[in-house]
Specification:
Number of domains: 2
Distance between the termini: 45 Å
Radius of gyration: 18 Å
Number of strands: 7
Strand order of the largest sheet: 5-4-3-6-7
Number of helices: 7
Length: 204
């Protein structure tokens, strides 16, 4: 109990010394370290290539949007399809903006084999022009991003840099991070100056 009180006291002192925003940033960095050990917020998102169903080679930078959510998941199943379904809901929520928001769900099969159903489009029966399903045979994309576990997301901004990362199953966290980045992108596109807390006009 004493140790818990000391931790709380230290947290308040840090908040007072650094300021609330800086303290929140430091806390976020701690969360980030649990997700990816080699990548950090501000790093350039690693590019990667993949082969589509027609046998054509594509690169990540060709399919990403102005703002991109890249989520790493397991083989299609209840958990992965539930995660992909949440991403699809967000994709619908952020459509119609000047800023193109793309959602890419990468399945990392445990047997390192990509079959016909090893992506969320076919395996989960989800279709949307803003949701792309990929299969990562051998976990190469996971290794490039340094993900310590599956079920994580990386938010990539218009400059191709990682703006946030966290639990891909936490739709509220993804939405919060998206609003901040999309708001900045919308402001840049429209050439207007708005408060940092302003939110983009997201269709209901």
């Amino acid at each position: 109990m004493r140790m818990s009180k000391r931790i709380v006291a230290v947290a308040w002192l840090l908040a007072a010394f650094l300021g609330c925003e800086e303290f929140e940033h430091q806390h976020q960095v701690g969360i980030v370290e649990e997700v990816g050990g080699t990548l950090h917020v501000g790093d350039v998102a690693p590019d990667f290539s993949y082969t589509d169903a027609a046998g054509q080679q594509h690169s990540f930078h060709e399919i990403r949007g102005d703002v991109t959510i890249l989520a790493l998941a397991g083989s299609p199943g209840p958990n992965t399809c539930g995660l992909a379904g949440s991403l699809l809901q967000l994709a619908e929520k952020y459509r119609g903006l000047e800023t193109k928001v793309m959602f890419i769900c990468v399945c990392v099969p445990s047997n390192n084999v990509c079959g016909l159903k090893e992506n969320v489009i076919d395996g989960c029966g989800l279709k949307s022009p803003r949701l792309i399903g990929l299969c990562d045979a051998g976990g190469r994309i996971r290794k490039d991003y340094g993900a310590k576990k599956l079920g994580v997301y990386y938010l990539i901004d218009a400059d191709g840099k990682i703006a946030a990362m966290g639990d891909a199953n936490d739709q509220t966290d993804i939405d919060k991070s998206l609003r901040a980045i999309v708001s900045a992108a919308e402001t840049k596109k429209r050439g207007k100056q708005i408060a940092p807390s302003a939110r983009p006009e997201v269709p209901q």
